[in-house]
Design brief:
By secondary structure, this protein is mostly helical. 61% of the residues lie in helices and 5% in strands. The protein has 18 helices and eight strands. The site of the ligand N[C@@H](CC(=O)O)C(=O)NCC(=O)O has 10 residues, from helix 1, helix 5 and helix 11. This is Solute carrier family 15 member 1a.
């Protein structure tokens, strides 16, 4: 019997605090990672973005490794501890790799040996990906293991609270670590403080580990049952081979193709594999949701850069966790109970379908915003056009004729300021409020707000300093961004509502439909849908360039609607199961472990019928 508080096992307190600290560590490090690549390692945008995406994809591929280790070898508890140690070492390695003084022998403020910093940071990132991905399927499943049969309502609430902790950690760290980076620190020279920005997440990871270990005495720990993954693969392989051997129509058909493993494998294992395969089959369309969802970090952020509003990047990266923190309680406490009161069965798979439709609507909203933005963007010359700018400083209007077949020779001008030889300069700046021209003791100052996205040309006559600053003419080549970024709020609201319906429910569903010894494996399968979704984004971004961004948004929205229709059909034919009951039935048929079975039957009878309805559970025999 585990210690309880308000109907919840006390041990889950340690698990949710552990998750909060771990997610703080992960998202905090991620918030400054691209900046570190760009401004510390001095990589270009493309390399920085590619390595960043490769790292994120790796983080969602390693869960399968963690699940195999947990379910087959070490058990969830030990796997979480060992991989958290690897994770913390990775974070510390990463933080050390950002100390510029280590290789700054000439003390000029920049590292002298970039290879050292690159090698150390790559090692750190690999360890972090192994750690964060490895523990990810185990922590949620381990949290679920703490609940007993009669606590199914509390179990659902746990998954929501778990998701809240993820987003609280993400929100705080996304706000804090960029501020830490902006501080100055160093031994020989003062530079932007990357060691602090990466060091604080490393400390949080150590705290996360300590909190998890502190709860040791209270956890329900289930032992791994041998190398389950290997047995599963062998059993599936045998069923396929056996089916092929008996392909002639003279052999009687079997109810399920996995029944062709009956000759050699335990009925219980076959029943468990059937449960897992049914859920994995249902996962096939799911990556499409993540394909859209993960574009909020790329396409939508880029969209925001063409809109007006200050502090865009900080606000944008926190909109999602802020909305999650508000929407999860509203959904759990208000919307879902209300739907249930109306007598509607809003089962997990229906919620996930509706979640997908919300994500599709978010992309329609993004397309509408894009159409508004496009109206305000300047027309850039296409690959078959040139653009001429004629600045007429003559005292009267001139006619310009352009001969269509004439070839233009475009000269490039020097771009250095403060030298009299150069006549033309281009400066791109952020937050320009003051702009001064200085010539010896004389100066002209322009003090006003220059809009984001705008481009200005200042025509300076040769007489300016003998005449006066008024003779300078300012031309607005490109208008400032005028579509306000507040217009993005509906799309963020829609995608986050979709996330709550899809992701939180998917997490619960993956746990509830998995046999006891394969819970982490199914969590890993669930996380893999995210990795595949990210890979689709990379492929589509590379291959399918549509001429108009809004058209691409609509294409993604239509694809997700099509996928959600397919998913709803698959979901219609899916029968919710209670894995424990099926396992007990199989054991009964095998005449095994009577005492154990009696206990399970008793527990099942005690189950609250209402709680079953809430989950839309229909008992069935596989
Ligand atoms: N909403 C995201 C967090 C974020 O993007 O800030 C989320 O909950 N992700 C799930 C996770 O496990 O990190």
């Amino acid at each position: 019997m585990t210690a309880e508080c308000c109907g919840y096992p006390i041990s889950i307190f340690f698990i949710v605090v552990n998750e909060f600290c771990e997610r703080f560590s992960y998202y905090g490090m991620r918030a400054v990672l691209v900046l570190y690549f760009r401004y510390f390692l001095l990589w270009d945008d493309d390399l920085a973005t590619s390595i960043y995406h490769a790292f994120v994809a790796l983080c969602y591929l390693t869960p399968i490794l963690g699940a195999i280790i947990a379910d087959s070898w070490l058990g969830k508890f030990k796997t979480i501890i060992y991989l958290s140690i690897v994770y913390a070492i990775g974070q510390v390695t990463m933080a050390i790799s950002t100390i510029h003084d280590i290789t700054d022998a000439n003390r000029d403020g920049t590292p002298d040996n970039f290879t050292f910093h690159i090698a150390l940071s790559m090692l750190g990132l690999i360890l972090i990906a192994l750690g964060t991905g490895g523990i990810k399927p185990c922590v949620a499943a381990f949290g679920g293991d703490q609940f007993q049969e009669h606590q199914s309502r509390q179990l659902n609430t746990f998954f929501s609270v778990f998701y809240l902790c993820i987003n609280a950690g993400s929100l705080l760290s996304t706000l804090i670590t960029p501020v830490l980076r902006a501080q100055e620190c160093g031994i020989h020279t003062q530079q932007q403080c990357y060691p602090l920005a990466f060091g604080v997440p490393a400390v949080l990871m150590v705290i996360s580990l300590v909190v998890f270990i502190a709860g040791s005495g209270m956890y329900v720990k289930t032992d791994p049952e041998g190398n389950i993954m290997w047995s599963v693969c062998k059993c599936i392989g045998f069923a396929i081979k056996n089916r092929f051997r008996h392909r002639s129509s003279s052999y009687p058909k079997r109810e399920h193709w996995m029944d062709w493993a009956n000759e050699k494998y335990d009925k219980l294992l076959i029943a468990q594999i059937k449960m897992v395969l049914k859920v994995l089959f249902l996962y096939i369309p799911l990556p499409m949701f993540w394909t859209l969802f993960d574009q909020k970090g790329s396409r939508w952020t880029l969209q925001a850069t063409t809109m007006s509003g200050d502090f865009v990047s900080i606000l944008i990266s926190t909109v999602n966790p802020i909305l999650i923190l508000t929407l999860v309680p509203i959904m759990d406490r208000l919307i879902f109970p209300l739907i249930q009161k109306c007598g509607l069965n809003f089962s997990p798979l229906k919620r996930m379908t509706v979640g997908m439709l919300f994500a599709a609507m978010a992309f329609v909203s993004a397309a509408l915003v894009q159409i508004e933005i496009d109206k305000t963007l300047p027309n850039f010359p296409s690959s078959s056009e040139s653009q001429l700018k004629v600045v007429n400083t003559y005292s009267t209007t001139l006619n310009v004729t352009i001969s269509p077949n004439e070839h233009l020779l475009i000269e490039s001008f020097g771009v250095q300021l403060h030298t009299s030889k150069h006549t033309y300069s281009t400066i791109s700046c952020m937050f320009v409020n003051d702009f001064s021209l200085i010539h010896g003791e004389q100066w002209c100052e322009f003090s006003r707000k220059f809009g984001f996205g705008a481009s200005y040309t200042f025509l300076i006559p040769s007489t300016v300093f003998s005449d006066d600053c008024e003779s300078i003419t300012e031309v607005e080549d490109m208008k400032p961004n005028s579509v306000h970024m507040a217009l993005q709020i509906p799309q963020y609201f829609l995608i986050t509502t979709g996330e709550v319906m899809f992701s939180v429910t998917g997490l619960q569903f993956s746990y509830s439909q998995a046999p006891k010894n394969m819970k982490s494996v199914l969590q890993a399968g669930w996380l893999c849908t995210n990795a595949v979704g990210n890979i689709i984004v990379l492929i589509v971004a590379e291959l399918g360039k549509l001429p108009k961004q809004w058209a691409e948004y609509l294409l993604f929205a239509s694809l997700l609607v099509a996928v959600s229709i397919i998913f709803s059909i698959m979901a219609y034919f899916y029968t919710y199961i209670d894995p424990a009951e099926i396992e007990a039935q199989v054991r009964k048929e095998q005449g095994l472990e009577p005492e154990e079975m009696e206990k399970e039957t008793l527990e099942m009878e005690e189950k609250d019928e209402d709680q079953k309805n809430e989950q839309g559970v229909k008992q069935t025999k596989i």
